[in-house]
């Protein structure tokens, strides 16, 4: 190539897709571990509901630690900022509240 016709290197254009990706990743950061805590809370509630169902199917009364776990899970509710996760957690909370209400009604009967 002749020396006089060399093209100057053009400046690199900023990578806009990476900027968008950085923004998405920033939104997914679990600040303070809240998302992780709420996922754990939901898992604990689901496990308690499963144990409660197994106890009832076996002829037990379903009292004890499982009801305490449900009460505790309901008391520790916090939004995660993830609409899908919050929706699933609300459904778990509703099922937990229904089971607790059933036990309260049974306990109140003479």
Characteristic key phrases:
110 residues, mainly alpha, elongated
Summarize the structure.
With 110 residues, the protein is an all-alpha fold. The chain has helices spanning 16-28, 34-57, 65-75, 83-108. Helix 2 packs antiparallel against helix 3 (65-75) and helix 3 packs across helix 4.
What does the model show?
It is a single chain. This protein has helices at residues 16-28, 34-57, 65-75, 83-108. The longest helix is centred in the C-terminal third of the chain and has 26 residues, at 83-108. The chain contains 4 helices and no strands. It has one domain (32-108). The protein is elongated. The protein is mostly helical and 110 residues long.
Average predicted confidence as pLDDT: 80
Ends distance: 101 Å
In oligomeric terms, what are we looking at? single chain
Number of helices: 4
Gyration radius over CA: 26 Å
Give a short account of the largest sheet. none
């Amino acid at each position: 190539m002749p020396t006089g016709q060399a093209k100057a290197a053009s400046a690199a254009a900023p990578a806009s897709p990476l900027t968008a990706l950085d923004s998405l990743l920033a939104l997914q950061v679990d600040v303070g571990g809240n998302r992780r805590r709420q996922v754990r809370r939901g898992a604990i509630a689901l496990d308690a509901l499963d144990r409660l169902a197994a106890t009832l199917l076996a002829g037990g009364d379903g009292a004890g630690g499982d009801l305490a776990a449900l009460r505790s899970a309901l008391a520790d509710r916090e939004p995660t900022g993830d609409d899908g996760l919050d929706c699933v957690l609300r459904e778990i909370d509703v099922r937990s509240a229904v089971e607790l209400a059933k036990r309260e009604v049974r306990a109140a009967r003479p």
